[in-house]
């Protein structure tokens, strides 16, 4: 037997989804108390024995992401000190995943978080659609990076009428690989929007621009002539590919700040697209994102339930949810039984 624990659940409907997951596995949720004291310290109390058992800790990410992380770390350490055999973290959306590159004099926070989880006692990690696949290398434990694309592809085929008249759109060159993967599987065309406003993922904010490029004759030997990198000049917005009279499906891994999606939708409307869908794995939808989507040219936003977003759905009927609990429950079952995980990664290439 194995125990399945959940650290915290901030939205009641998401708790129902976890109960469905437990029902598929034929187990009950473990008994555990997680609460904050008056001084905001997190306290964890496991109310049943986990000695020599496989403990699966499911943690979703709330708006208070730092509290969520502390709850996870304390729970993992509590299971470790209670002599659990294996402690597997099930974190559908890995927090701080965008901070996986060195930027100027910042830090690689994803590496720090991975080290903290391993140090606390995590022995295995199940996650979904990491922002960068290289984050798996930050851990010294096995990491299973599941994919949500089969569920999103199925939604396109079943829920979008006349999807054969659609074109897969990358809102920036950085997301072109994901768009290409969707287009090849659906046998559709691809379009790429180029020349949008500079975002935080560009190389203008990483460590290669440090130190500053200002010449200082006192710091550089006169005999050294270091060539300076030519600054980039942002081209006007262009759409590479035909979207006129087509359904445009924008694909990405995370939708949080929706400004870039709204700008892409306006551009596609100007180029003749008559319907616009946005497909993403993780729907963070922070701040006033639901209101902006409701007032935009976007017809529908489809995200998975890796993150609770029931409140956002009430604010914006355009937001639809795809359930991915099936693949999580199967991953949990296979890991506990010592079965191969390759079945869950069928037809997934190196670029997916």
Automatic annotation (TrEMBL):
GO biological process: 5-phosphoribose 1-diphosphate biosynthetic process; purine nucleotide biosynthetic process
Pfam families: Pribosyl_synth, Pribosyltran_N
MF terms (GO), sorted A to Z: ATP binding; magnesium ion binding; ribose phosphate diphosphokinase activity
Keyword list, A-Z: Acetylation, Nucleotide biosynthesis, Phosphoprotein
Residue ranges of every copy of the Ribose-phosphate pyrophosphokinase N-terminal domain listed in the record: 22-121
Signal peptide region: none
SMART domains per UniProt: Pribosyltran_N
Gene Ontology CC annotations of this record: cytoplasm; ribose phosphate diphosphokinase complex
Function text: Seems to play a negative regulatory role in 5-phosphoribose 1-diphosphate synthesis.
Subunit record text: Binds to PRPS1 and PRPS2.
PANTHER family (UniProt xref): PHOSPHORIBOSYL PYROPHOSPHATE SYNTHASE-ASSOCIATED PROTEIN 2 (PTHR10210:SF29), RIBOSE-PHOSPHATE DIPHOSPHOKINASE FAMILY MEMBER (PTHR10210)
Family from the record: Belongs to the ribose-phosphate pyrophosphokinase family.
Name of the molecule in the record: Phosphoribosyl pyrophosphate synthase-associated protein 2
Organism: Cyprinus carpio (Common carp)
